[in-house]
Specification:
Layout (H helix, E strand, L loop, with lengths): L1 E5 L7 H14 L1 E2 L5 H4 L12 E8 L2 H13 L5 E4 L8 H12 L18 H9 L3 E4 L12 H19 L5 E3 L9 H10 L2 E4 L15 E2 L1 E2 L6 H9 L2 H17 L2
Helix pairs in contact: 1-3, 6-7
């Protein structure tokens, strides 16, 4: 299985995203969050030779609701939307300030296009869940989880699930930590495993049901605006070799006593 992590999906990139999704549907078997449990069941082998492909979207931008979700649905697929509860529902200056102080911290000049930094509302999250998509946690405030004190760690990991569950009116099964592959430590990961059914890592790689765990799912960042040559390379799996050492190191760190 290949899991894609996207971020912004603005309308100005909708044609590029549609082309990418249609290309992906030709070469992969598109799945949704409801197909994840069977992936780890040996009795549920794929019925064709195509690898499975799951799309996920980080941060909770409104453009994911307005652009990405309908395009996925047109292909019969559903995605997982990892959101930041403290970001959801903000508008105007508050949304822009949160976005550039907590999410996009590269120090670039702020965009004057509202769709770049406007989040979804709680009602839009409920609507996505009603339509068969899944809503997951991307921590409460988009924070690095390594070396946090226990109370803050519980806030970031557990309280975020509680906030989302109130909005979508059912438990939250999905978690993805932000920033880098090593922005987590074993205490944070152990809490995430106790809180969520599936845990996703910002570390590229193909997922093997025989050797990988539902609590450490690799994700490949492939953005909506990537040109054809770049996204095809990212889907090819060649990047797996580059990240092999970091995947192995992360497994060792999280398995350490």
């Amino acid at each position: 299985m290949v899991v894609v992590a996207m971020h912004e999906t603005p309308r100005r990139h909708s044609a590029q995203l549609r082309e990418q999704l249609e290309w992906a549907a030709q070469h992969f078997a598109l799945i949704g969050p409801g197909d994840l449990p069977s992936f780890w069941e040996a009795s549920q082998a794929p019925t064709d030779s195509k690898p499975r492909l799951l799309f996920t979207f980080d941060d909770g931008r409104q453009s994911n609701y307005a652009v990405a979700a309908p395009l996925l649905e047109a292909l019969g697929a559903r995605g997982i939307f990892f959101v930041i509860p403290d970001f959801i529902g903000l508008r105007g200056h508050a949304a822009r300030e949160f976005y550039y102080s907590r999410i996009d911290i590269r120090g670039l000049p702020p965009s004057d296009m509202e769709e770049d930094w406007t989040p979804m509302s709680a009602g839009q999250l409920r609507d996505l869940a009603r339509r068969g998509h899944a809503i997951g946690s991307h921590t409460l405030t988009h924070m690095r989880l390594a070396q946090l004190e226990i109370l803050e760690l519980q806030r970031q990991v557990s309280a975020s699930a509680e906030a989302i569950a109130r909005w979508i009116e059912h438990p939250v099964d999905y978690f993805a930590w932000p920033y880098a592959w090593d922005a987590i430590d074993k205490p944070a990961w152990d809490l995430a495993r106790r809180t969520y059914r599936f845990c996703f890592s910002p570390c590229p790689g193909s997922v093997d049901s025989g050797t990988d765990s539902a609590h450490l799912i690799w994700r490949n960042e492939i953005e909506s605006y990537y040109p054809r040559e770049e996204y095809r390379f990212m889907y090819s799996g060649l990047v797996d070799l580059v990240w092999a050492a970091r995947r192995a190191r992360l497994k060792r760190v999280l398995a350490a006593a």
